[in-house]
Amino acid sequence: MYQINCVVIYGLHGVCRIADITKKDFSGQEETYYILKPIFDDRSTFFVPVKHGSAQKLRPLLSIEEVKSLIKGISCQDVIGIEDEKHRKDAYKKIIESGNRGEIMRLIKTLYVRKEEQQKAGKKQHIIDEHFMKEAESILYDEFSYVLQIKKDDIVPYIKKEMNALE
Fold it and tell me: 3-class DSSP state for residue 166?
């Protein structure tokens, strides 16, 4: 069980602080809930049942070493090569929902490569690719920003600098 003031990742909602743990009666039966406040959006609050499956969407933050390891590993990862748009969309959705940061990083790399290929061909990025790029970047870069204690806008330059240092 997490404690008050722990900072966690909550599914697709990103980095959240556990503001409180309380008992509430939302469904006719009193349950214990985590009250989560997103770090980067002070307008939202989430009530997550401690014993219910929703609490399984809570994950501890990566460490600084884990973030740096993910960044170092990106150059070795293959892009996701799915030509069929429907299958590609389904695969991207599963990656986002899984919360696997390594796969989300791979997805971002894939989408950057696809975007560059589209631009070279004089085309615009596909809408679905743009959507998944924004979602994947938001999920991962919020966490990187919090862990590394740098602004979210500085994450991409930081990643590029780290990757250039490897070459």
Answer: helix
- Regarding whether 74 and 54 lie in a shared domain, the answer is no
- Both 121 and 101 in a single domain? yes
pLDDT tens-digit profile of 114-157? 999 999 999 988 888 999 999 999 989 999 999 999 999 999 99
The reply to whether 54 and 68 lie within a common domain is no
Amino acid identity for residue 102 in this structure: G
pLDDT at 24: 84
The residue segments making up the domain with residue 14 are: 7-60
Which H, E and C letters describe 35-73, residue by residue? EEEECCCCCCCEEEECCCHHHHHEEECCCHHHHHHHHHH
Residues of the chain with pLDDT under 50: none
Give the global pTM. 0.86
How are strands ordered across the β-sheet holding 46-49? 46-49, 31-38, 14-24, 7-10, 58-60
**pLDDT value at residue 166:** 60
- Count Cβ atoms within 10 A of the Cβ of residue 131 and give its class: 0-12 exposed, 13-18 middle, 19 or more buried: middle
132 within some domain: yes
CATH no. for residue 48? 2.40.10.170
Tokens standing for 12? 């697709």
